[in-house]
Amino acid sequence: MMEKMIFGRYIPAESPLHRMDPRSKILLVFLFVCVVFIANNAITYGLLAVYTFLMVLSSKVPIRFILGGLRIVLWLVLFTLVLHLFFTKEGDVLFQWGSISIYEGGLKQGIFISVRFFLLILMTSLLTLTTTPIEITDGIEVLLDPLKKIKFPVHELALMMSISLRFIPTLMEETDKIMKAQTARGVEFSGGPIKDRVKAIIPLLIPLFIGSFKRAEELATAMEARGYRGGEGRTKYRQLRWGFVDTVMLLILAFVTAALVLFRS
Amino acid sequence: MKNPVVTIENVSFKYDGQEQYALKDVSFQIYDDEWLAIVGHNGSGKSTLAKLLNGLQFPEEGRIQIGGIDLTEETVWDIRKLIGMVFQNPDNQFVGTTVQDDVAFGLENNGIPREDMVERVQSSLKSVKMEQFLDQEPHHLSGGQKQRVAIAGVIALRPKIIVLDEATSMLDPRGREEVLDTIRQLKNDHQMTVISITHDLEEAAKADRIIVMNGGELYREGTPEEIFQMDEELVKLGLDIPFPVKMSKMLKAKGIPLNKHYLSEEELVTQLWTSHSNK
Known about the structure:
Order of helices and strands of chain A: HHHHHEEHHHHH
Number of strands of chain B: 10
Largest sheet of chain B: 6 strands, mixed
Strand order of the largest sheet of chain B: 6-7-8-3-9-10
CATH topology of the largest domain in chain B: Rossmann fold
Structural class of chain A: mainly alpha
Helix content of chain A: 55-70%
Oligomer: heterodimer
Distance between the termini of chain B: 37 Å
Largest interface: A-B, 29 and 40 residues
Number of strands of chain A: 2
Order of helices and strands of chain B: EEEHEEHEHHHEHEHEEHHHH
Helix content of chain B: 25-40%
Shape of chain A: flat
Structural class of chain B: alpha/beta
Number of domains of chain B: 2
Largest sheet of chain A: 2 strands, antiparallel
CATH class of the largest domain in chain B: Alpha Beta
Radius of gyration of chain B: 20 Å
Radius of gyration of chain A: 24 Å
Strand content of chain B: 15-25%
CATH superfamily of the largest domain in chain B: P-loop containing nucleotide triphosphate hydrolases
CATH architecture of the largest domain in chain B: 3-Layer(aba) Sandwich
């Protein structure tokens, strides 16, 4: 199950999308999320679908892998489709069976909304599939920079994100260790009724929490000893580069948007 | 050589909400280019001392001077540039997501320009022999490797003094050797002062000078030879005697003539296998 999830996973590859600046990628996805709502007929949705499909192709992430990972989401998409089929009552009746009747408007609405939903998820997963978490963090830090004017702690937020990312594997290891230690003391984590299994989490969580607080304190001391005193006057080691690909990608989206506005009814 | 870089004068300190003093009227000096070991068992005040040295805590009484600068709230950031620290837990001092990010962290904090940073990250990783691990993530590294990265992070800032606060106590013997070798090498190359806070007397035996702490007070100060003469006294302080010292003491008791307490295994072995021909 965990192996099949694709949310937040990064697939290394050599592709234009991988080479893009995280800033432009985040911006692109954000704009796409807005643009999707312009579409309102078959042509515009078709256009969006083609665009998304081309983006997926250019990412060089295996399509089979993406679809496999989105299987759970596909069920959700199907569910929205069914909901619309039964509950939207617009246009002519297409099909009637007993008290159940399906309308033309319902079918159209259902298909459009599920396509929209599906495309949104595809594009956002494409972002995380082609960008390392730390790059996303860097991108967000720069993009949110204007918010510093209203005293929004942008630097702190980015640092928090990168430290959390850095500590995920460490905490996983620790969880594993505690689990083994508690198993040795007779706690059963798998099997048994759900009530017992939930209870078994407590002796796992408490040592994990205490350990994390200790870690946090030591980390803070170490950071301070290395001269950390907030974002003020700091330079940055990681550098973001806005390249030709980035401009081209955003231009393409601009063209798609123009076409959508032109063809929408 | 006897040029003091650190002067500690009548320093007392106690933690908030505690009755007992963690440090009581401690005074000593640390000289340029020396390797000083501070030993003592848990609660002897040796780690508190480390925290005072770079202003993570401030003394209640007394004065600390580092590189000729008085340590106060105003000078603390300048002093932290002079004094680098490596802590005990390799995981809890690794801030960056990759090796190079972590080395750069201290440089970023001090506002070093980027071109300079790239060069310093490379050279300091090279000096701890971790240059092939630039993009490695911390969970793929061993404890000793992580500590070497931490050392690189300290070296990159070009400090005068490096403090090892039990930096080897969580490592296996191999990792410990790796780290100590690295420090020795760096000390030779860069003329740094090393202050190693430890309860491992084998490690302390290789220092130029040892300070023994007990109950927040400076108990004894001397060369390793002088300190290990204390024998039983050390055991009473909760410290162990290094194996070669113990061994030579026992051999002496058996009537084998040895002219002193040997601090390292090699020394003792050499003495033993040449003792016959030396007669």
